[in-house]
Task: structure prediction
Amino acid sequence: MKKGKFGFTHYISWKEAVLRKKENLKTEENFRQQERRYEKYDLNLREWIAALSGGVCLAAAASYTCYRNWAAFLIFLIPAGFFPQYCREYWRKERLRKLELQFKETIQILSSSLSAGYSVENAIVSCQKELEMMYGPDGLMAREIAYMTGQMRMNRPIETLMNEFADRSGLEDVENFSRIFTIAKRSGGQLVPIISHTVQIMDDRFQVKEELRTLTASRKFEQKVMSLMPFLIILYIDTSSPGFFTVMYTTFMGRFIMTICFMVYLLSCYLSRKILNIQVG
Result:
């Protein structure tokens, strides 16, 4: 209810209230989208608790397998506190990989729309519809294109929006495409052939990356299985033959040998991850 100019009061209809609420939510969503930077990943409370719980479980498994001592468990809790940092880095890379994959689909749709005679602005709108069908309205690129579409209605140039997205994405391919797109758009040259050729080159790079991921996927799975084998072997022997490892946990030499074995195990895990982490320049 509002008070008018001459003292009369009038009521805001429920439709106006809903529209105003939607506008406020849309403004907040646009602000969050504008501030989102993909090279940074912030853990929410649920993810932080899950990561910290995983670190505690790993500390318990390592202390039980190597020492079976509460003091060792308390010592292992110190590095376990850094496990959320490891998870954050892993989830950040996974989000960048998803963004890269969805960006590849986006520029392919954009190139097809431009080749079909669409203007750049209409091609962006077409991308939004296609991406929402493929990844849903909450997809990474679907949100970005929806944000660009809303900003274009406010007469913001698409080149500026593309450059802002490239700056926030943290991906080299996005930055290169944005740079080429901006030059081609402002120079007034043959935009469609330039974009199509750029998309073809970037698609070849994406295919090489996907082939490498496919070739190393089985090896990465084997590496994860082999990382669990020492724990499973010790657990199996300890279950089938109780007391077999007692000397390893009660004597100084036994604990020393288990410490050396644990250090070799950590080194092997580190080297195997480095070997399988193949980067495409």
User: Anything to note?
Assistant: Residues 1-12 have pLDDT under 50 and may be disordered. The beta strands are 2-3, 9-10. The radius of gyration is 27 Å. The longest strand covers residues 2-3.
